[in-house]
Amino acid sequence: MYPVGPPKTYTPQPEAAPPTEQGNPLRASEVVSAWISNISSALVGGNYLKPESVALCPVSLPPVLGMMLAAMDEQKTKEKFLGLPPGSLTPALEVQIHQELGAFSRAHPFSQNSMVSTANFLTSSRPGQYHGDLVGILQDAYHTDLNTVNCSASVADATNAYVASKTEGRITNAFGELSGANRNRMVLALGNVLKFQGIWLESFEKSNTRPRVFHCADGSIINNVLMMHLTCKLQFASCRGFNAVAKPFRSENGNELNLVAIQPKRKHDPLGLPPILLKRAVSDLIEMTSAAPLVTGELTLPRINISYTDGKLFNTLGEITGLQITPMDLAKLGLSADDQLGVHRTINVSLDEEGARGAVANVGYSLTRSKNLTQVFTFDRPGYIAIVDGSGNRLMEATISDGQFLETSGAAKITIPPRLSSIDDLFSDAPLECSKKTGRAVKPVAIEEDISQSPSEVAGIVQKKLNARGEEFTFIEISNDLDALRIRVTTKDEAKKLQDKILELIGFDHFTHLKIIDLREFGRHVLVKISPDAKDKLLI
Q1: Mean pLDDT of the chain
Q2: pTM of the model
């Protein structure tokens, strides 16, 4: 792996920001803030209930999305990607947006000894096919490492080696369960790697760590979660039905880092975090805790070990923006229409008596087809945690809804309480699959896309089956990809009727394989998402 040749010319052009329809100029900082906030909250579960734990690194998203934006050529595609009105993205505003998206990367260049450091990269076996000013934008705004491999080498292996070296071996596989055959088809990978480490300002005593109870979002109880306990200086805040606490790490070279934990005030809420949490309360509570005075309080916190991977960023972007990104949309990368795109995000974070250490990799890839009162905060029920720097940037955030990220004393001892009042209360937004042994959410295994059926053929089969008895379901869109079949309709009532019809056809034992996702909050439609097992049965 070696650096590519000299960058192509990239000259920012000074120009006033364009006016919006109301006559006020668009500000790059506001565009980026709103855009990243929508995507982050969707990925971490802010749009609908998620009974399973989810993790995200908000500050690593902007450079990855920015590099994708830089690879786009069509103005209309860029505007739709950013959620901007037609004609509003001028060259000057685009330059400013790239500078905003790359600001954190430029402020935290990679260093083995830094509290927080990050690196962006583009690795390719086709470097000569980059178009226009792409290389200049990547180097100027994102300080991107440009690497290439020869035709006999593996882009996937080179990328994994790069990520492993930057994360000191915490992440050795940036592509999740992507098959070996698909890794061999990889011709390009771009992404961001972030590493952070912090030592508590006041450490927990290991002798105070003991098994305690944690109440999961699905109503089950884990009886032996290892909980750390400490009386120390903390910052407390409360608003909108939530309590928050901030515990500082040691400052280093002027950098500040805090752990922020948030949870609902209601102790026994079987459905866990309501959707209002990430959308409205988190930013306020993070700001409030940072401004709150340090007071003596008691903190009980679980030992946490997050090992999380997810490959659905493209799908989430499509659901929010209405833009299903294709290789031809990323024209400046020189991809072909037959290439296949994907993004994997991998998070590895540990939180223990000494402090926090974490590594994050977001990698996009292309496959060629072929008051001084003692307060108490006990994190023993579904909640939210974040590692936040002194500027409010979230290096890592996660919802803790079940035992996926929690360390236990021996094997997890789980109690399943009696059923809730109705199946709708428990499963209206249940995970696609559920472990029969523990009742906890599990990730469906990714399957290869069936290239024997075109999108139009799949849509035809679905419409014919669902309207076979004279029903008149009206579909906005039917899409089939690697991990699910998605059917868009206008209202939630239509979605429920559609769900009932599909279950009638494939069997009601597939209930947990269908999910209704209401995206009208983002100006989109209601989505019925069908997992691979149920999809295969429907398409037979």
Answers
A1: 79
A2: 0.68
